[in-house]
Design goal:
Blueprint lengths: L1 E6 H14 L5 E5 L17 H13 L4 E2 L7 H11 L2
Parallel strand pairs: 1-2, 2-3
Length: 87
C-alpha cells in the first residue's frame, strides 16, 4: 500500500492508523503542495524541507518501507531523502 499524492497533513494523519491496522509493507509519496492545486494542476507554494523531512522521519518510525515524494517535489527532495537516510 502506498499513500500517494496526499498533502503532508493528510499523510501524517494516516500514519498511526496504517501502522496499527496494516501488517504488510507500505509507504508514502506525499504531495508537497500547500493547499489545493490550481485548476491547471500547478502548485505555487510547497512545504518547507523541514516539514517534509519531519514527515519522512515519522513515516519511517511508523514502519514505512517505501519513501518518495509526489506533486510539488523536485530532484532536490529526492536528494534530501537520500542524504538524511543513506546508510
Amino acid at each position: 500500500m502506498i499513500i500517494n499524492c496526499s498533502p503532508l497533513y493528510t499523510t501524517n494523519n494516516c500514519l498511526d492508523i496504517i501502522s496499527k491496522e496494516w501488517d504488510k509493507k507500505w509507504g508514502i509519496y506525499p504531495n508537497l503542495g500547500v493547499g489545493e492545486p490550481s485548476p491547471t494542476g500547478d502548485i505555487k507554494i510547497i512545504h518547507s524541507d523541514d516539514n517534509f523531512i519531519k514527515l519522512i522521519y515519522k513515516a519511517i518510525e511508523c514502519g514505512a518501507t517505501v519513501i518518495g515524494s509526489c506533486c510539488g517535489s523536485t530532484p532536490h527532495h529526492t536528494r534530501l531523502i537520500k542524504n538524511k537516510f543513506n546508510g
